[in-house]
């Protein structure tokens, strides 16, 4: 997902997406610790998406 797509979303939708990504990252870390993670690159993608969402959300709250 790109930052331009995120800017079009509202603050509520961004908050929901942030919670979803945080939960997904938690589950991926659990899978990694148990040795069941099939796509290690997925953690990197989710972390970056979460950072993008947080950045856009912070920009919207300052306005």
Q: How would you sum up this structure, described in words?
A:
The protein is about 80% helix and about 0% strand. The protein is mainly alpha-helical. It has a single domain, classed as Helix Hairpins. The longest helix is centred in the middle third of the chain and has 24 residues, at about 10-35. The model has no long low-confidence stretch (mean pLDDT about 90).
* Uncertain runs: none
Topology order in helix (H) and strand (E) letters: HHH
| Structure summary, number of beta strands | 0
Strand count, sense and barrel status of the largest sheet are: none
Shape: elongated
How does CATH name the architecture? Orthogonal Bundle
What's the number of helices?
3
SS content category: mainly alpha
From the alpha-carbon coordinates, what is the Rg to the nearest angstrom?
13 Å
Q: Quick one: CATH class? A: Mainly Alpha
Distance between termini? 23 Å
Looking at CATH, which topology would you report?
Helix Hairpins
* Oligomer status: single chain
Helical residue percent band: over 70%
Overall mean pLDDT stands at 92
Strand content: under 5%
Task: Label this structure with key terms.
63 residues, 3 helices, Helix Hairpins, elongated, 81% helix, mainly alpha
Helix/strand layout:
Elements: H1 3-7, H2 11-34, H3 41-62
Q: Could you write a compact summary of the structure shown?
A:
The chain is mostly helical and 63 residues long. The protein contains 3 helices and no strands. It has helices at residues 3-7, 11-34, 41-62.
